[in-house]
Amino acid sequence: xxxxxxxxxxxxxxxxxxxxxxxxxxxxxxxxxxxxxxxxxxxxxxxxxxxxxxxxxxxxxxxxxxxxxxxxxxxxxxxxxxxxxxxxxxxxxxxxxxxxxxxxxxxxxxxxxxxxxxxxxxxxxxxxxxxxxxxxxxxxxxxxxxxxxxxxxxxxxxxxxxxxxxxxxxxxxxxxxxxxxxxxxxxxxxxxxxxxxxxxxxxxxxxxxxxxxxxxxxxxxxxxxxxxxxxxxxxxxxxxxxxxxxxxxxxxxxxxx
Length: 257
Description:
Layout lengths: L6 H25 L5 E5 L7 H6 L3 E6 L2 H14 L5 E5 L14 E7 L8 H10 L1 E12 L1 H10 L3 H9 L17 H10 L3 E8 L8 H6 L3 H13 L2 H4 L4 E7 L8
Parallel strand pairs: 1-2, 1-4, 2-3, 4-5
Antiparallel strand pairs: 5-7, 6-7
Helix pairs in contact: 1-9, 5-6
């Protein structure tokens, strides 16, 4: 896993990484190829691209930020995977202008849909880049987690605003343009013609537990990781997760997923 030396970072990525790694393994078995082609849209400095490349897969990272791509280039060099990772400047809206259609076994769309003008178009572009039988990994901000966080901080009016706002925003100062429910994300995946796979709640507890407890209590990080994993697939906790993760599978050529 990336950033294993940073307990708080590992808590925030552990569930997604385990699900993604299993999806990669399934695709390897299905194709009979040890090396997959992976597309990471909005991949930034490589938080997922680097560990995917460490598994031996080729990764294309598309990101609109030149600074992020510069950081990616430096990071992959330091990690010894520069030959497996390439960065391309672009965004979800113009994705097919910078990558090929039907060219990738797995597409990561993490932390992207919150910021695009049309989430359905963003998902459709990611799906178009998938090969038949390929997998989409979709991660986005969860509505319930934001409502709970504002309420626990004592901002009850903002919590109620987020609960009733069509975009799930708690006010003009909210840095996140859009949040989703598990049902909304699943509908986006299904609406793009994919078979909807498991939904996971991400950071159900990690953002709520005081950092001093996690950092100082012996065994707390490992115990919290196990708790996050146990709760991730339970629908009851999807409603309070900070992020939501959905897998989607593209049907074989000629098959409607």
